Structures are given as C-alpha cells and as structure tokens.
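Table S2 (continued). Query chain:
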Amino acid sequence: MTTDRKSILIANARSGSNSDAALQALCQCLGEHGIGHDRLLDISSEGPPAAAELEAEKVGRVIVFAGDGTVNAVVNGLAGWGGEILVLPGGTMNLLSVRLHGDAVREDEIVARVARGAYRLVRPEVASCSAGKALAGLLAGPGTAWADVREAMRDVDVLRFATGAGEAVSRTASGARVRFGEPGLGRDDGYPLVEITPGTRGLQIDAYSADKAADYLQHSWALLRRSFREGPHERLGLLDRFELVNCESEPIEVLIDGEPATLGPRAEFEVARCAVDLLATGHGF
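Corresponding output:
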C-alpha cells in the first residue's frame, strides 16, 4: 500500500472476541509496528463500507478484526475495489484467518509479519452459490440448525440453548436430507449435513451421516464446537462444480461462513475467485 493512502480498522462490537480490551490491545500493537489506522468503524452499528466510500476517502487498506461472518460481509461487499484487506482473528470463529495466516497464529504475530513485509496479496478460491460466496466454508442440510444452538451457548442463554438443542436434534434426525445430483456422489438417501471447503485444488466435499443414536451425539457435539470433522463423515473428493438436491423437494438451508441462508430445492455450487486482494502471511499461498 502506498503511503499516501489511508487505512481503516473495522471491528464488530457484537463479535465473540471483540472486547474493549482486545480492541485496545490490537490498536496498540498496530501502532507499535507502524501500521496505524485513520478511522475505526464498528460494523455492528455502521454497516460494512462501500467501495465508492473508500475511494472517496482515499483508503488503500482495510483491516478487519472480526469473525468469519463479518469478514465475509466486508470482503464480498468490496468486490472489485482496488485496495487490500488484512484479516485478523477477532471473532468466535476465524477460519479464513487460518487459511491466510496459518493455524493458531495470533493477531500480534500477523501484524508483525505484515510490518516486516512478510506477506503477499492473494485472491483465494471461494465456494459460490446463488445466496453468496463463502471464503472459509459452506454447510448445507438440516444439520445447519445447530448454528442457532451454538449462538445460544456462546451467549450463555440456557433456555434458548435447551429449546434449540431439542429442535436441532429433531431436524438433524428427521429433516429433509440433501443428496448429490450431478455428479451423483455418495448415498442415494442423502446426508443431514454437507460441508464445502474452498481451497487451491477446488471444493473439498465432506458429507456427514448419523444412523445411530451415538452418531447423533457425536455429530451434535462436533457441530456445537464447529469441529465438524470429528463427527461421523466421509470425504467425497474435490470438485469444481456440483449440484445438491433436497430429497423431499424442500428449500435447502445453508450456512455461508456461519451466516444462514436458504436456497431452492436444487442448488448449484462452484469454485470461484475472491474479487478483492487479501494479505496472506502463511505458507498456504
């Protein structure tokens, strides 16, 4: 980024790790490494910025300290913008940060890498469907009902947790499953959950089954912690494009970087390219 361009810091006051203390510590870290910012934007009250707004302000870099859902809104909202985005792990889940910077890397280490020039600008692969583009991952099927339960657990809402858990078990066990249309992969009777993970070789497809009571317990606990691959599943391969079909011709529920959306009974998914430059400091790029 050229020195005559400004920088803004975007945070989310409602995000899981964005306490005042955490935000103050980040601002101090940025200053110590010579990476200042001209403005702090709270996306929970102001909304994500538009490309035209940033161009008018002569902003060249956006620093996002938030979780995957907020990062998704910022990055996809700035598609086509000529600046660059630095993603820092500041939310409940930070899977895109892991893609860009490596596993278990703290924000202060990422900032230090950027300060010494140890980064490159990338436009990573994303998972695209008619409801949006997932930078970190996409989930489809009735098992996505566990997202509400996870939020209740995070908010320490015991009543909503208990009610939601019962509903999620019911929907996962008896909800309309999703199967693969084209190509025809996996089980003909479908799956309660399909995970789609974008990467440098296409879309990695993992399908999760639950045929016994023990499977549902393991599956549910894994979903709550968003450690999906600890649940019963099978890896179906890497694809550039495929179709999911609801086994009962109902709408398909999805989570795009953790945010809920609804697709039609038949939905196409394909690998695409992020439309704005992101800073990567890890060895994955």
